[in-house]
Design brief:
The complex is a heterodimer of chains A (440) and B (370).
Chain A (H helix, E strand, L loop, with lengths): L3 H11 L4 H12 L4 H18 L7 H6 L6 E2 L11 E2 L3 H11 L2 H12 L6 H25 L4 E5 L2 E5 L1 H15 L1 H10 L10 H17 L1 H12 L5 H9 L7 H24 L1 H8 L2 H22 L5 H22 L3 H6 L12 H24 L2 H18 L8 H18 L1 H12 L3
Parallel strand pairs in A: 1-2
Antiparallel strand pairs in A: 3-4
Helix pairs in contact in A: 1-3, 2-3, 5-7, 6-7, 7-8, 7-9, 10-11, 11-13, 12-13, 12-15, 13-15, 13-16, 15-16, 15-18, 16-18, 18-19, 18-20, 19-20, 20-21
Chain B lengths: L1 E2 L10 H4 L1 E2 L11 E3 L8 E4 L9 E4 H7 L4 H12 L5 H13 L5 H32 L4 H7 L4 H18 L3 H15 L12 H20 L4 H33 L1 H6 L1 H19 L2 H12 L3 H14 L13 H14 L4 H5 L4 H12 L3
Antiparallel strand pairs in B: 1-5, 2-3, 3-4, 4-5
Helix pairs in contact in B: 3-4, 4-5, 5-8, 5-17, 6-7, 8-12, 9-10, 9-13, 10-12, 10-14, 10-15, 13-14, 14-15
Classes of the chains: A mainly alpha (440), B mainly alpha (370).
């Protein structure tokens, strides 16, 4: 079987399988020698994998790119000069590293990763140290030797170097040179998205920043850029950095933070530009609402930390990101919110929804709530409020009974009240409960 | 509203420690209710409000004016007031009844209904085992009755006659005997009888404490020193609680094993037995939640385990001083300082909005109740 179309068909067929079987298929596909075929399959099943989060088998290539995994963007979303990396850089970069790093080190690394648990972060860290350091040096040497734009030979392969590829390789080399610091921070900080940091965790960030600053401010910039990509509200970290005493002048510090902040904002803006494509791919309003909430939290925190920069570019990016998010919310969640919610509830109290149906209805209600939370920030409050009141009115209508509530009716009432609470908050739910039952 | 310094870590008595309440509002997670002036006049000790130093102590009215609470918690509080809840056993039933209505989500509601049904069945089984034990007193083998089918008219008649014999032997009326067996069964069902195939829920919870402490000590070996110190402390509290619980269980089992004696000297011994069961409920109060958190963290990585150890510290059901002196003020101060450095700020409290993701986490915990 060689046609990519056939692989795509297999991938689509496997989407109908239960989770466990799908993961078995994934294991088989991962063994295919042609990465192009593997990618075709992965692209098709990615929305399911995002939810299942299976541990990917560890390879030397994945180990190499581990310190920068948070900076990769899909090729279609990638934008140059904002400190991000395109997935398309993986192959040329890997070719350089494979061809230039000491073969015995490469072989040793490959042997060790084969027997390492992909979840054992400490072992992975220990194996990666030598590879990261050697690769940083080799990429840097390659760029020095091949300082012209064009096609260059590395081992048996050729690498086409453009201005942007050159910049990305340089960034990768920088990241790899501080990989131990990055991986140590990842080991000791919460998983992404990091909502907040404890005093001990802030101390860790501060110590690392100070150590890197003693060597070069460029390293600090690289480290912070990576950390920002893991934060739920990157602006919080920028503010904390603003309060740290770095070994540089105030102007240098302001410039550093401004550059990092505006890069993070540009990355966010480019993420919002492909939201509508995701609308077609994923079509899951619940995941969409969650994504929107995360994007808005990032946007607001960055906007706040960049406030005062008086930069028109910043203002334009914020406006455009807001518009894209608003359209996504309206088209993906709001337009079919009532349908999603009510299709899980029967129109009368007599037939009780199953646990799964009720959980689906609650998921839809929570998506609406997420949208309501961001509505103000993206300027669609009126549309969202209108939808919410229509849904609440329908739920309220369904909770009316002319006779005293029997068991089934009172369960139906509680279901409506619970959904109203999720959508409109506890005060509204309490009002209805008291109106129907005369007390709590 | 007031904030204590370090005094909140170790209470002087059970009533000062308060009863853990399964609220779903994140800022009220495992708040402890104290009824110093009797039922109905209570205040809440809030360990999760700020994630910072000390504990906030607030009456419900102040809570309502400062925190957005879930409807579930408002209804739960109303029911606590209405039913004059003043001990962990009553609190548990109120909690389950409110959850069964569905206000903490469909899964918690289903679980609460299952638990309430399961406990009714367990109590019926406990009553049955007590009756079998009594039949042995007058040398009647239960096999006869079982062979006839317990529901059959002949078996029922034979059972009634046998119990009449037991009542005469114990020198009580038959009605009084039934009443005592029912009362005893409802009292000891949370612990279970030694001859029961499954332990009661309190005994099972106590057994889980030893696992909790074992794993916590193992995890602590790989944690940074500061947090490992908290982990070892929590494990030692779990061990101690487990040991004290086992002693109480033993006393209760001894009493139920000499059943005829207990039924004969009912007035004298029953209230002592009730105190023992209540003592056990107080000892284990609040551990359900922590064990749920522990199970969650066990399935995750080292960071989540460290976070669990840090967050659990403020919720730890430490045995009060009037039961046992286990921790000095100096040690308490040192531990609370470490705790403060490891706990993240409570975002929900900062924004003033209900974080429904966090609420859902608490609802899941509720659905894991035993």
């Amino acid at each position: 079987m060689s046609s990519l179309e056939e692989w795509r068909r297999i991938a689509l067929a496997s989407l109908g399988l239960p989770d466990k079987r799908l993961l078995d298929v994934l294991k088989l596909v991962e063994q295919a020698p042609d990465r192009g075929q593997v990618r075709v399959v992965l692209d098709q099943i990615r929305p399911r994998l995002v939810r299942l989060r299976p541990p990917r088998p560890l390879t030397a290539q994945r180990l190499l790119f581990r310190p920068m995994e948070d900076l990769f963007d899909p090729t279609e979303r990638y934008r140059a000069r904002i400190g991000r990396l395109s997935r398309a850089i993986v192959q040329p970069c890997w070719s350089i590293v494979r061809a230039t790093v000491d073969p015995s080190l490469m072989q040793r690394t490959e042997e060790r990763v084969r027997v390492t648990d992909p979840l054992n972060q400490k072992d992975i860290f220990a194996i990666g140290l030598a590879l990261w350091s050697a690769a940083a040096q080799q990429i840097s040497d390659f760029l020095e030797k091949n300082n012209s734009i064009g096609r260059h030979r590395v081992g048996n392969d050729h690498v086409t170097v453009t201005e942007d590829v050159r910049q990305q390789l340089l960034n990768i080399s920088d990241i790899l040179s501080i990989a131990p610091e990055i991986e140590t921070a990842k080991l000791n900080l919460p998983d992404r998205p990091i909502k907040s940091l404890s005093p001990v965790e802030i101390e860790l960030v501060s110590t690392t920043v100070m150590r890197l600053a003693a060597s070069s401010m460029r390293k600090v910039q690289t480290f912070i850029l990576l950390l920002l990509a893991r934060m739920a509200r990157p602006g919080d970290l920028l503010q904390a950095l603003g309060e740290m005493s770095l070994p540089c002048s105030n102007a240098e510090r302001a410039e550093l933070l401004g550059t990092i902040g505006s890069n993070a904002l540009s990355a966010l803006a480019s993420e919002t530009q492909i939201l509508r494509q995701q609308q077609n791919d994923a079509a899951d309003p619940s995941a969409g609402a969650q994504l929107v909430e995360q994007l808005v939290a990032r946007l607001i925190s960055l906007e706040r930390s960049l406030y005062g920069s008086h930069d028109h570019k910043v203002a334009d990016q914020v406006c455009s990101a807001r518009r894209e998010i608003a359209n996504f919310v309206l088209d993906t969640v709001i337009v079919k919110a009532d349908q999603d919610l009510f299709e899980n509830l029967s129109p009368d109290a007599a037939s009780e929804p199953t646990l799964e149906q009720m959980e689906n209805a609650e998921r839809s209600a929570l998506s609406l709530r997420r949208c309501a939370r961001v509505a103000d920030a993206v300027g669609i409050r009126k549309d969202v409020e209108q939808k919410l009141s229509t849904i609440c009115a329908e739920l309220e209508r369904r909770s009316v009974s002319d006779t005293p509530y029997d068991r089934a009716q009172s369960q139906s009432l509680m279901r409506s009240i619970r959904l109203i609470e999720l959508i409109a908050g506890p005060d509204e739910a309490q009002r209805l409960l008291m109106a129907r039952l005369g007390g709590l | 509203m007031s904030s204590e310094k370090t005094a909140g870590l170790v209470a002087n008595s059970w009533t000062e420690r308060g009863i853990a309440v399964f609220f779903t509002t994140p800022a009220l997670t495992q708040a402890r209710m104290r009824c110093n002036d009797g039922p109905g006049r209570c205040e809440f000790v809030l360990p999760s409000l700020s994630g910072g130093k000390g504990y906030y102590i607030m009456p419900w009215k102040s809570i309502m004016s400062t925190i957005t609470t879930t409807l579930h918690d408002r209804v739960l509080f109303e029911q606590i007031q209405k039913r004059n809840v003043d001990d962990p056993i009553k609190m548990r039933y109120v909690t389950l009844d409110v959850a069964a209505q569905g206000l903490a989500g469909p899964r918690a509601a289903q679980k609460a209904r299952e638990i309430l049904d399961g406990e009714k069945q367990y109590q019926i089984m406990t009553t049955f085992l007590l009756i079998l034990q009594l039949l042995k007193l007058i040398n009647i083998s239960p096999n006869n009755l079982i062979e006839q089918g317990l529901g059959s008219i002949s078996a029922q008649r034979e059972l009634k006659a046998a119990l009449k014999g037991v009542a005469q032997r114990l020198n009580v009326s038959q009605d009084e005997l039934y009443m005592r067996i029912e009362t005893l069964s409802s009292l000891v069902a949370p612990i279970g009888l030694p001859q029961a195939s499954e332990p009661g829920r309190l005994r099972a919870l106590s057994d889980e404490l030893s696992q909790f402490s074992h794993h916590l000590r193992q995890w602590s070996l790989e944690m940074p020193d500061e947090i490992a110190h908290l982990g070892v402390f929590e494990a030692s509290i779990a061990d101690l609680t487990n040991k004290m619980s086992e002693k109480v269980v033993k006393v209760v089992h001894n009493e139920t094993e000499s059943l005829s004696e207990l039924l004969k000297t009912w007035e004298k011994n029953f209230s002592a037995l009730r105190e023992q069961v209540q003592q056990l409920a107080w000892l284990l109060d609040g551990w359900d939640y922590l064990i749920g958190e522990f199970r969650d963290a066990a399935a995750k990585g080292s960071r989540e385990r460290e976070a669990m150890v840090a967050n659990s510290f403020a919720l730890l059901p430490i045995i009060p001083r009037n039961q046992l002196e286990i921790i000095s003020d100096q040690q308490a101060h040192k531990l609370t300082t470490v705790h403060r450095r490891w706990v993240r700020a409570n975002e929900d409290w900062r924004t003033g909005l209900l974080d429904y993701e966090q609420v859902q986490r608490n609802e899941v915990r509720k659905a894991e109740l035993r």
